[in-house]
Amino acid sequence: MKNIAVVGTGYVGLVTGVCLADLGHHVICIDVDEEKVSHMGKGYSPIYEPQLEGLMKKNIEEGRLTFTTNHAWGIPNMDVIFLAVGTPQQQDGSADLTYVQRAVNDIAQHINRDVIVVNKSTVPVGTNESIQQYFNQHVGELGRVDVVSNPEFLREGSAVYDMFHGDRIIIGAENEGAALLVEELYRRLKLPVVKTDIRSAEMIKYASNAFLATKISFINEISSICEKVGANIEDVAYGMGKDRRIGTQFLQAGIGYGGSCFPKDTNALVQIAGNVEHKFDLLESVIHVNNRQQVLLVKKAKERFGSLHGKRVAMLGLAFKPKTDDIREAASIVVANELIQEGAYVTAYDPIAMPNASKVLNVEFANSTAEALQDADAALIITEWDEFKQLPLSTFSEQMRVPMVFDGRNCYTLEAIQESYLEYHSIGRPVIGEVDLHKFEYTQNYLSEHG
To answer: What is the mean pLDDT of the chain?
Structure first.
């Protein structure tokens, strides 16, 4: 078992640190936010992630996991130091390495022995070589530093599961001994290990996310054609997925991808390609399709009503995916802003993500699904939470003024919808039901005139 420091406690750093502690290592997690560190030290997770908080408390109580803001206490005498800070997107689409550079400088100042620095931050190809050169120049004779690239493949909402049950572990290193030591850290997981040079490891991360984003945009393009030719995208995707060369994952039509990884990494890879004078036409199209897909529900609603001005619209779901409170690059942000621009009154509900959403969205927030739907002219399903998927369809017709649903995640079967009293628009499937809008407009006008 090793002594490990983890610099950065976002999704990647915190999950990595907690899970390594649960594997038996002694882990110190370092972050500059004093309030955040204080809460984590008491076993409270700053992010919503299933299973994480329970593992935090367990390993704190058993003495394998601690938190600090003090690099001078957390860095010296470590066997391995994990670098897990954010690399946000800059305006030109490239990765901002400010936090990486700052963390590397902090680490270099406090190294006092031979150590392996494992970079889990997603960085452009060649970055880890630059980090190695920096350590070579600034650590001197205090200790030898070997930099290893160990990209993460954690999905928000299932990050703990992915850590323990991943498809593979990628280790990029120039020093075979350093690669073997990092492999040993994960030995108890019994997962396949792929060892490469550092640059290939960096590229594997970007290429993997870009490929998955491509599958999503591809199936969304097919869904648009299905709507025009009268096919059902779910049958099409199922038939495609039975081909083992294609597979079923990431073939669910919807309103596009979001989150902290796919948008950032696809844009960054386009920039990386541009830096070596390669125009990545395919990936540029993937990004374009996704941007267009995120406004699809608003387009459908506007075409159906003619105008959304003055309409009451319920948004169900704000997180970019279920089982997370993360709204970074979420479709909900684009949808809400488009609805407001069209003059609609928006009421939103999400089981988990409303505190984060309230910081960036200027909409009314409801305390429940039923409250969000109350007297709505249209309901837009943005995130496929189980709470929405298991909702009795009668709730829509009972609560809404106009029982019209625009489902961006295909949460319901068409067979179930056919037995309801809804007009239902989904992605890549036929429209079910038809509401007489003139009837509802007449009712509204009558009530306005007679009270």
So the answer is: 95
Q: Is 87 exposed, middle or buried (0-12, 13-18, 19+ CB in 10 A)?
A: buried
Domain 3-196 has CATH 3.40.190.10: no
| Domain edges within the chain | 3-196, 197-450
Q: Which is the catalytic residue, given 19, 29, 226, 261?
A: 261
Task: Report residue 17: phi and psi, to 5°.
Answer: -60, -45
Facing residues of 147 across strands?
A: 117
Q: What is the pLDDT of residue 448?
A: 55
Same CATH topology for 3-196 and 197-450? yes
More confident residue, 346 or 112: 346
The H-or-E segment that residue 201 falls in is helix 198-229
Q: What's the mean pLDDT in 346-368? A: 97
For residue 244, say whether it is annotated as part of any ligand binding site.
Answer: no
Q: Is 411 a catalytic residue?
A: no
58 is in an annotated binding site: no
Contact between 406 and 311 (Cβ < 8 Å): no
Q: pLDDT band for position 438 (50/70/90)?
A: confident
- Residue for token pair 């003024």: 401
Distance separating alpha carbons of residues 214 and 221, to the nearest angstrom: 10
**pLDDT of 324:** 95
Of the candidates 233, 229, 228, the one whose C-alpha atom is nearest the C-alpha of residue 408 is 233
Task: Establish whether 258 is an annotated binding residue.
Answer: yes
CB 135 within 8 A of CB 143: no
Does residue 446 register a pLDDT over 60? no
Q: Does 406 appear as a known binding residue?
A: no
C-alpha angle 133-137-140 in degrees, rounded to nearest 5: 125
Contact assessment for residue 402 and residue 376, using Cβ atoms and an 8 Å cutoff:
yes
Q: At what angle do helices 198-229 and 281-293 cross, to 10 degrees?
A: 50
CATH number of 197-450: 3.40.50.720
Q: Identify each DSSP E strand in 293-440 by its residue range.
A: 312-316, 345-349, 364-365, 378-381, 404-407, 423-425
Q: How many CA atoms lie within 13 A of 177 on its CB side?
A: 6
What backbone torsions phi and psi does residue 404 show, to the nearest 5 degrees? -125, 125
**Other Cβ atoms within 10 Å of 38 Cβ, number:** 12
- Write out the DSSP string of 436-450: -HHHHHHHHHHHHHH
For residue 141, name the pLDDT band (cuts at 50, 70, 90): confident
Which pLDDT band, with edges at 50, 70 and 90, does 451 fall under? low
- Tell me if residue 96 falls in helix, strand or coil: coil
Cα→Cα distances 23→19, 64, 149, 337, Å: 6, 10, 20, 44
